[in-house]
Specification:
The structure holds 2 protein chains of 2 kinds. Chain A is α+β, with helices and mostly antiparallel strands. In chain A, about 55% of the residues lie in helices and about 15% in strands. In chain A, the strands form 2 sheets. A 6-stranded mixed barrel of chain A has the order 3-4-9-6-8-7. In chain A, strands 14-15-20-17-19-18 form a 6-stranded mixed barrel. Chain A is extended, with a radius of gyration of 39 Å. The relative contact order of chain A is 0.09. By secondary structure, chain B is α+β, with helices and mostly antiparallel strands. Helices cover about 65% and strands about 15% of the residues of chain B. In chain B, helix 1 packs across helix 3. Chain B is globular and about 50 Å long. The termini of chain B are far apart. Classes of the chains: A alpha+beta, B alpha+beta. At the A-B interface, helix 1, helix 2 and helix 4 of A face helix 2, helix 3, strand 2 and strand 3 of B.
Chain lengths: ~900, ~110
């Protein structure tokens, strides 16, 4: 090689650096020698000749360095070009292989496409939910404040305005504390009245967030304390209802019968998730009485951390302020604490565990898909061993042959990645559409879910990783040991041990991961079933509900509100098909405000531990229509139209206040209006007032005869299908007042199934279950493949055995045993992983422990059964082996 | 010979070398000698520059190199024109002729 470096050069093969050096040396020496000889031939003495030759040549050292550098640059360029050429050749070869085996290519592409698509969709949604949900400048310093109660520090409640003012002036860790309160309103628009969502905010709320109106100047600068009525509308409201008219700014808008000045239009991208999708943002009425009531906890405060102050420090500092206020105003503030929550956590806190669960699930799915493809790939690489061995024998380096396998894997994965990116687009859209309106509005970033470049990049990144991994795995697993053996065809009989072990390991891993997904889906199914069968305390069947809000000057007075609802209930009751009808200020599962109270004749409670109860105003035969049982005394009747102040309490409150003593006849007082004493006339059953997955809170019911309500939900029990009543009820409302919007029309069943508690389990369940199903199919294919391959490998051996008298059944048994062993190993591994990983689901499980034995046993049985069945199907072909043919085959 | 002249000569040197090789494969020393003789010493070409030009043109693919035996039986590196080199020579030759003619027509108006 050293003697003929030119040949290497000629074939454009890389020359070692030392060879370049030597070439240059030799060339230059030849030049100098030739010149010297010429000079010496002319009679010049040797020394003189050498000096002349060198002088004529110029700087010899420099020349040497320059020439070597040129040579090296050329070499590396050639090397790079060579690699690219290899790559192109490998890619062409891989494409040719794919065309020759379209079935294989299709299976791989579909498998990878689904795996990559699902992961990319999930990553994209998660990324958006976690990063773009608080789209404000310097959002990391924005915090949400909540009040807590000392006896239950996990409780979250609103604050009163006087408290906020004190926090503002005394806190040192927060700059600017503003507040909001979501409210529903009736807007009088040209097209008629509609019910819209709004939010009441303090004057500098938008400055705090760092949001400037796209049109208009926002609330007047001196709003604090003034009684101006101003409203800022969202871009959506402006386009839909104000005709995108820029002169609308400065104009007026009638909301709940009052006239507001439109002070601005928010940017199109604006969203403040904690307040839902409020369309109008009203300046708080600083003149309202509740602004000076310290007991009235109705505002949700938002603040900005002072530069350089940590959340913890700000919370500790604010806690001091809150404690000072508690000793200054024990009557209203005793026993209350405060928490400072990053705004981001406030927005995504609820969905974060779900997102992470799903992220874990799609990762598992991707792993299964990859394992399957790797297994297929390996099987094919093994089948191609003789061909590869020929190439090695003909002088291809093992690196090149392995490289070709890697390139093939990468190419398949890249095409899979493209398919995946397309599927991801579809997936995100479906995912977002699966989320009910109300929940989507709480997380608006999710709703704008479309494919972005980041998703495509993620999909391609995953594809490269998977493809490279699969290719490398196959390349490593390729038995290069004995090309001669492979060439003779001996490989079939036994040389593939390492390849087989790889495939076994892949299948075991697949089974394990599938089991993990199945366990997850199983646990969620059990949670959902438990939740749906939770005793809600009411009978949801055949109940239709709808909400009516009385707004405007006609309903300012209590008796107008009372008269409207009484008339409406009377007319609805008279409708055919109606069994009973009632109304409540808030339906079950809809939450509501609370009041602190005390029972007369009982010792004065510690101010920190005053009993607190959810408050409901009811009308008509509400308890009857809802199917809430009366346990003691009576419910409201004609007596309340003129008689003494009366209350109905739920069983929890009666127990809490009086234990097993009778509650009827006892009297309660509320701290908010302590001058009135209310007599308990009856006790009703517990009803899930708030969340389906939360315990029933203490509840008191008022009659609207004694405390009028301006907004109520009708509950109509039908004789037949409840939804059929909707048009006639709507007609009755319109007959009473055509300007009143009727909204939130749904059956009580829909209230349950559409509740966030149910949704937040159903969505991951549906996704997890479909992932698990996909995984199961993949695992079946994997097991089937391994057994079928084992069969083809041992066809000759089986032929011999059959000839020697073995029964076909025993051969099938042999193969099935192998499948069962794989299944057992996978199940054991899967159970271990599932037990370790189940805590991921803690946040969304309900009524089921993460290691629920029933789920574990059922899923394990399922996967074992499936494994054995798949092996059985694959092994069945052993019975059809023709012994003579099999022995001739090789 | 000073540096600025060398820069001026860069393209010139290439065309001279290509021309020298157009008569057949030759080693660097023979190329240098041929140029010296043909220009009758008017163009003083530094040997170092000549070799740099040779190696550059080899990388560019205008000439290729092969080791062989010299007239006096020594191992020497022979250069030969590639088809690309032949095309380059034709282009450069044409460019040089029109350039020289243009300069000459300005200097010696006849």
């Amino acid at each position: 090689m050293n003697r003929l470096p030119g040949i290497r050069r000629l074939f454009r093969l890389a020359i070692p650096r030392r060879a370049i050096d030597r070439d240059v040396d030799e060339e230059l020496r030849f030049h100098l020698d030739s010149r010297m000889q010429e000079l010496m031939a002319g009679g010049v003495p040797r020394d003189e000749a050498e000096r002349v030759a060198r002088r004529e040549f110029g700087d010899l050292g420099l020349a040497h360095r320059e020439l070597v550098a040129i040579g090296r640059r050329g070499d590396s360029r050639r090397w790079r070009r060579e690699r690219w050429r290899d790559l192109a050749r490998d890619a062409r070869f891989a494409l040719r292989l794919m065309r020759r085996q379209p079935g294989f290519a299709a299976v791989v592409l579909i498998t990878l496409g689904i795996g990559i698509g699902a992961s990319a969709a999930m990553v994209s949604v998660t990324r958006r939910a976690l990063t773009q949900s608080v789209p404000f400048p310097d959002a990391d310093r924005l915090v949400h404040l909540w009040m807590t109660r000392d006896e239950d520090v996990t409780s979250r409640s609103e604050a009163s305005y006087p408290d906020l003012v004190d926090w503002q002036t005394q806190s040192r860790g927060l700059t600017g504390i503003e507040a909001y309160n979501p409210a529903n309103l009736t807007a009088d628009l040209r097209g008629g009245p509609i019910r819209i969502r709004g939010t009441v905010v303090t004057a500098h709320f938008f400055q705090l967030l760092g949001v400037h109106p796209a049109l208009g100047t926002g609330f007047p600068p001196d709003s604090v304390g003034a009684g101006a009525r101003a409203v800022i509308v969202t871009h959506g409201f402006w386009t839909r209802h104000l005709g995108s008219d820029s002169t609308a700014v400065g104009g007026s808008l009638t909301l709940d019968g009052a006239v507001y000045t439109v002070a601005g239009v928010l940017p199109e991208t604006f969203q403040f998730a904690p307040a839902g999708d409020g369309e109008v943002w009203l300046l708080i009425d600083y003149a309202a009485p509740r602004m000076s009531e310290r007991f009235n906890h109705w505002l949700r405060p938002v603040a900005r951390l002072r530069e350089g102050v940590s959340r913890e420090a700000a919370e500790a500092d604010l806690a001091l302020v809150v404690r000072r206020l508690a000793s200054a105003y024990p009557g209203t503030n005793r026993g209350r604490g405060v928490v400072v929550v990053p705004l981001r956590d406030q927005v995504v806190g609820q969905v974060r565990p779900i997102l992470f669960t799903l992220l874990a699930a799609v990762t598992v799915m991707l792993l299964i898909a990859s394992a399957n493809v790797a297994s297929l790939f390996l099987a094919r690489a093994l089948a191609r061993r003789p061909e590869l061995a020929v190439r090695v024998a003909l002088g291809a380096s093992r690196g090149r042959v392995a490289g070709q396998v890697v390139v093939e894997g990468l190419l398949l994965a890249l095409i899979g990645g493209v398919a995946g990116a397309l599927l991801a687009r579809l997936g995100t859209t479906l995912l977002v559409r699966a989320i009910p309106e109300e929940i989507r509005s709480g997380l608006p970033t999710l709703a704008s879910g479309t494919l972005d470049w980041a998703t495509v990049a993620v999909a391609m990144g995953i594809a490269l990783l998977v493809g490279g991994g699969i290719g490398l795995l196959a390349a490593v697993a390729l038995p290069f040991g004995a090309p001669a053996l492979a060439l003779r065809g001996g490989a079939r009989s036994g040389g593939d041990r390492s390849g087989n072990r790889f495939r076994d390991a892949l299948v075991v891993g697949e089974i394990a991961l599938t089991l993990v997904l199945l366990v997850g889906a199983g646990l969620l199914t059990r949670s959902l079933l438990t939740l749906l069968h939770t005793d809600t305390g009411f009978t949801a069947e055949r109940v239709m509900t709808m909400r009516i809000a009385l707004a405007g000057p006609a309903y300012q007075r209590d008796d107008a509100q009372l008269r409207f609802f009484e008339t409406l209930l009377e007319r609805v009751r008279a409708l055919p098909g109606v069994e009973s009808v009632g109304a409540a200020s808030n339906l079950p599962l809809n939450g509501g405000g609370t009041n602190t109270l005390k029972a007369e004749g009982e010792p004065e409670p510690d101010p920190a531990r005053r009993p607190e109860a959810v408050v409901r105003g009811v009308a008509g035969d509400y308890f009857d229509a809802m199917g809430i049982p009366v346990l003691e005394g009576r419910v409201f009747g004609v007596a309340e139209r003129s008689g003494p102040l009366a209350l109905v309490v739920n069983r929890s409150l009666a127990r809490q206040l009086f234990g097993s003593r009778p509650a009827a006849g006892r009297r309660l007082r509320f701290y908010a209006f302590p001058e009135q004493a209310w007599e308990i006339v009856g006790v009703v059953g517990d009803v899930k007032t708030g969340n389906l997955d939360a315990p029933v809170p203490a509840t008191v019911y008022f009659s609207h005869w004694q405390r009028a309500e301006n907004r109520m939900s009708l509950a109509v029990r039908a004789v037949g299908r409840p939804d059929l009543l909707t048009p006639t009820i709507r007609a009755e409302v319109a007959r009473l007042d055509p300007a009143l919007p009727v909204y939130a029309v749904m059956t009580m069943q829909e209230q349950i199934t559409g509740s966030p508690e149910v949704f937040f389990r159903r969505l991951p369940l549906v996704l997890l279950a479909s992932l698990a199903l996909g995984a199961l199919v993949l695992a079946i294919v994997g097991v089937y493949g391994v057994i079928a391959y084992a069969l083809t490998q041992r066809t000759r051996e089986f032929g011999v055995r059959l000839t020697l008298g073995a029964s076909p059944g025993s051969l099938v048994g042999l193969l099935v045993r192998r499948g069962a062993l794989l299944g057992l190993a996978g199940t054991a591994l899967g159970l271990a992983v599932a037990t370790l990983g189940a805590h991921l689901l803690d946040a969304i499980l309900y009524g089921v422990p993460p290691t629920d034995p029933l789920t574990l046993v059922a899923t394990s049985t399922l996967i074992l059964g499936v494994t054995v069945t798949a092996s059985g199907l694959a092994a069945w072909r052993a019975t059809r082996i023709d012994p003579a043919g099999a022995m001739r085959a090789e | 010979m000073t540096r600025p002249d060398l820069d001026l000569l860069q393209g010139t040197l290439d065309v001279l070398i290509l021309k020298a090789l157009s008569w057949g494969p030759s080693h660097g020393y023979a190329v240098a000698k041929w140029i010296k003789e043909r220009t009758e010493g008017v163009l003083l070409v530094e040997d170092r520059a000549l070799y740099v030009a040779l190696h550059r043109m080899e990388e560019r693919g205008w000439i290729s190199a092969e080791w062989g035996l010299s007239e006096n039986n020594r191992k020497a590196k022979f250069y030969l024109l590639t088809p690309a080199g032949r095309r380059a020579l034709r282009d450069k030759h044409a460019a040089w002729s029109s350039y020289a003619a243009a300069v000459a027509s300005v200097l010696d108006p006849s």
